[in-house]
Amino acid sequence: MSSATLNLVASAVARIGLISDTHNLVRPEALPYLKGCDAIIHAGDICNQAVLDALTQIAPVTAVRGNNDTGDWAASLPTHAKLTVHQVTILVVHDIADVPADPRSEGIGVVVTGHSHKPSISERDGVLFVNPGSAGPTAFQAADFRRHLAGGRRARQRYLRFAADIKKRADMSVGPLRAIFNQLINQARAVAAAA
Questions:
Q1: CA of 152: how far to CAs of 44, 105, 192, in Å?
Q2: d(Cα 68, Cα 70) in Å, to the nearest integer?
Q3: Using one digit for the tens of pLDDT, what is the confidence trace for 97-128?
Q4: Dist CA 61 CA 7 (whole Å)
Q5: Taking a C-beta distance cutoff of 8 angstroms, is the pair 185, 164 a contact?
Q6: Helical ranges in the chain per DSSP H
Q7: Claim: this prediction has a pTM higher than 0.85
Q8: Taking a C-beta distance cutoff of 8 angstroms, is the pair 21, 112 a contact?
């Protein structure tokens, strides 16, 4: 297991873009979601250096190696990466099976994974788990992710309560990360209103 740790200057990072499973492709549809990000996290299955080069044109990239990332270009990619942003430690791994059994006990507040190609947001034992889904050739899932958030009235209400709780915790402990959570809340409200 290889890992990398990066501490981001608190005042410098306000918005983090998440992407995964690009599989040799940076889809034009993904670019508006990443534009304006202060940092990008790629949760693996990049499949060639050109993808990282394109993303680096937008913002600094933290990437991990996925099961399809092979060859010399991928040898320097870690399998695990940790970032600390506004006192919140983010663990990035490609496959959720590689997440430690109790990430909270290791001080991790957010886990970003890929591999499944299925977008999801959930909370387990006080840790936020996020999988951005696949942005590769066979599935760009921004629309699917919005549908996931809109998956019925109860799901929307649960997500809004969860997002509000995360926002409250962000207001209390992590300051500018609240902008990220405000954006999630606003997106969920827009989806709920459109459903």
A1: 30, 33, 9
A2: 6
A3: 999 999 999 999 889 999 988 888 888 888 88
A4: 13
A5: yes
A6: 31-34, 49-56, 142-149, 153-173, 178-194
A7: no
A8: no
